[in-house]
Amino acid sequence: MAPVTTRLMLEQLRRRCVAGGFELVVPFDVADFNSGAAPDQRLPDHGRPHALGVVVGNTRGLWPVFLAACRRDPATALQPDPLDGYTVAIVSGAAEATGHAFVALWGHTMHPRPIPIQRVAEVAGLARIAPCHLSVHPQLGPWLALRAVLVLDAEPQPSPSLDHPCAGCARPCMEALDRALPSTDWRKWLAVRDACPLGRTARYSEAQVAYHYDKRGRKKALE
Predict the structure, then answer these.
(1) What confidence tens digit (pLDDT) does each residue in 46-58 have?
(2) Checking DSSP bridges between strand 24-29 and strand 135-136, what pairing results, if any?
(3) Reported pTM
(4) 180, 164, 119: which is closest to 146 by C-alpha?
(5) Would you give the distance in Å from CA 52 to the centre of its chain?
(6) How many CA atoms within 13 Å lie on the side-chain side of 186?
(7) DSSP conformational letter for 50
(8) What ranges make up the beta strands (E) of 84-206?
(9) d(CA 188, CA 132)
(10) Rounded to 5 degrees, what angle do the CA atoms 21, 45, 148 make?
(11) Could you report the per-residue pLDDT of 81-103, keeping only the tens digit for each?
(12) Residue 149 in 3-state DSSP?
């Protein structure tokens, strides 16, 4: 069992993330990921045999919170990628408030290489990778986004296991993927997500969909 101080710290971290629209805050033991990772993909561990990792993500619930933040501070919407900037501000602030040393790794960072955030989420028991390469949650289906991995200099909590939500599925996502390749039409790529039978009620709003898929419609999505 994690020490009370760790549990309380995690609850405070979760509250701050949720207040910012990031409802998915799932702790795990960094050693559980690193034990099976290639050397160049291992997470930092603060020199501990076991360190506290936290995967942070969001559902459709982020969108109204994010829009409200853009309206309060119009400069938020003027950043090169408003949502990425907002994510860094909220999640970094929540981590700093714990008082523990931490490293933040961002799902949107592509250089020098992207972090293996989908595999981290599998180890954390948050979501599993579907045949079409989307991360899928048992209730949300593919309607979630993995935003960050925090590694804190603190004792971890055990990583729960997660049965694969795609087990027994007829894999309609793969038919949609075949139709999408090698198209550049974002609607065909959205159809891959829409093909999943899980999480129908968790689907993003049309504005949220447009922000992520239609780069030309991004500004309008923020109105």
Answers:
(1) 999 999 999 999 9
(2) unpaired
(3) 0.95
(4) 119
(5) 17
(6) 10
(7) S
(8) 102-106, 128-129, 135-136, 145-152
(9) 13
(10) 20
(11) 999 999 999 999 999 999 999 99
(12) strand
